[in-house]
Amino acid sequence: MAGQADSRPDGPAADVRGEPVPSRVEAASPRRPAGRFVRRWGPSQAAVAVLAVGLVVTVALGWAAQTVYNNNEKRLLGLRVRELALVLSGAITSVQTPLASAAELADATDGNVQRFRAFMAPYVGPGRQFASVSLWPLGKVPAAPTAIVGSPPRLSARTCSALRGYSAHRPPGSATSSTPRA
Predict the structure, then answer these.
(1) Which of 27, 68, 69, 127 keeps 20 to 30 A from 1, CA to CA?
(2) Structural domain of 161
């Protein structure tokens, strides 16, 4: 039969033409002819290009998303600041109005204690706007309150000297002090 290997007990197997047939072990291992380069598997140029384009698109979209996020956060922070400014301006007005009115009343009545207490009583006490309000005469040393509505004030000697500085900017008369509710 042509092409079949002939097995000889005395030597290696040979085909019909007399050329040696490789054994199973030799057939399983590739032979490299001398001087020839064997190409190993690697990514194609198209795959590398697709990977590069994918990375560029991903980085660009990530940068765009971060930019939009930062702009949105800045805008929201600006809105919160404006909202806080409105709340604080309303709170300052609600604190300042009764105190300014009490100071004007004290100036107009030359520091009348009964009128001061009657005017400030609705604003002072538990659950109300102020815990304490006091009327202090200006220019007296040592400084002490003339009238106290609510709990005793927590003013120190430093605060009294600050009141003296305040008196330099107001016409002679009386000044008010308050302790707002926390």
Answers:
(1) 27
(2) 44-182
